[in-house]
Design brief:
The protein has about 170 residues and is mainly α. It is built from two helices and no strands.
Length: about 170
Amino acid sequence: MSGWVEAFIVIAAIAIVMQMAVMVAMMLQVKKSLEHFTRLSTDLQGRIDPILSRTNRILEDSEGRISSVMGDTAEITRIARSQAQKIDRVFTDTIERLQIQVIRADQILTGAMEVVDEAGSKFRSTLWGPIRQASAVMKGIKVGLDMLRRHQGGIPESEAASQDEELFI
């Protein structure tokens, strides 16, 4: 039995030595990888630092310009709003004045139309009334004369009827 224990101890010692060799190889590989990553990181840092410093300088230089642009934009907006309000006031005033003038023109035109209508009515009543009366008197006289002629001249009744019809046509 003692041979077996010694064999197991030797096998365990060999396994421990092999395990140690694998661990040392892994450690060397990790160290090598770590050095490679450190080199890449340093190279990347060297490339990025100038870009970041330039970007930082550009932003610092542009800060005043951006502030100025924002101020100018605010001023332009304020002026545009003020001008729009002025234009609105001018248009409103113009429209109100135009409405007043249209109302005045309407009143003048309505008054003139009433005067013309009244003058026309007076003209008709003054002129046409007597003309109608005179025309009616003339017709009456003509009918009377025709009647007298018929009775005196012996004009046949059919001719008299046609002459009466001509008067109405």
